[in-house]
Specification:
The chain contains nine helices and no strands. By secondary structure, it is mostly helical. The chain has one domain. Helix 6 packs antiparallel against helix 7. The N terminus is likely disordered.
Length: about 250
């Protein structure tokens, strides 16, 4: 009996076999891919919904005079936009070890671009949140303060727009190299990688146009935005090809 018990204990304490590790490894890889995919999908909605809430406040006529009545909407929108900044940096960090196996410079460029994007977008949100105390100062100053308050409010919203466009320009440039690497290595289907390359090229054109006052950025952001949604869903349900987790030959 003692011998049988000893055998059972020895069996239960045995380390995982190579077969059990080989079964667990694809599951962990699929989970890793799904997290990256979920972040792609989340940034599509977080910034869009957050910016929509903010615009519902700042797009109203004489919004500074009534901003105290809508500050919850503005703060909620700003919070979602800040969550987006966290998500885009997370994308760069999680993508890095996968991309680095196939192209160190591309991995570093994409990580840097995502960090720059996250920081600039967060700074833009801070500009927008400054509208709340500015609105109160304008009300306290009365009619005499409306002129300078309106001018400063316009400056803050324009600063947010500029920070956004520079962030998108940085993202679009680095994402061209990302999609080229994805196309070359077939980590995702080539039609997706090609779509992404074309979408980001058009996206960059829109960002540059917006910086120079030509307002076509929203229209030109559609292909790139839909690519991020599509690749996010692909990674959630299909994942990267196994080569994503192996060093390049």
């Amino acid at each position: 009996m003692a011998t049988q018990t000893l055998k059972q204990n020895t069996s239960s304490d045995a380390p995982p076999t190579a077969d059990s590790r080989s079964r667990a490894e694809p599951d962990s890889r699929r989970a890793y891919s799904a997290v990256i995919g979920a972040l792609f999908v989340s940034v599509f909605f977080l910034y869009g919904i957050g910016f929509g809430l903010v615009t519902s406040v700042t797009g109203a006529p004489a919004y500074l005079a009534t901003i105290a009545d809508h500050q919850f909407t503005l703060i909620l929108g700003g919070f979602l936009m800040l969550l987006n900044s966290v998500a885009v940096v997370g994308l760069g960090v999680l993508f890095f070890p996968i991309l680095a196996k196939h192209g160190q410079r591309t991995a570093l460029a994409y990580l840097t671009a995502r960090i720059v994007e996250g920081v600039l977008l967060a700074v833009g949100v801070l500009y927008l949140l400054l509208l709340i105390p500015l609105g109160q100062l304008g009300v306290d100053a009365g009619a005499a303060g409306q002129g300078w308050a309106t001018a400063l409010g316009s400056l803050l919203t324009q600063a947010n727009t500029l920070a956004y466009q520079i962030a998108m320009l940085s993202l679009g440039f680095a994402s061209l190299f990302l999609c080229a690497l994805l196309f070359r290595t077939r980590l995702i289907p080539r039609f997706l990688a090609g779509w992404g390359f074309a979408g980001y090229a058009v996206f960059m054109t829109g960002a540059i146009a917006e910086i120079f006052g030509i307002h076509i950025g929203v229209m030109l952001s559609v292909p790139g935005g839909l690519f991020e949604l599509a690749v996010g869903l692909w990674l959630i349900f299909k994942g990267f090809q196994p080569a994503a987790y192996s060093p390049a030959a």
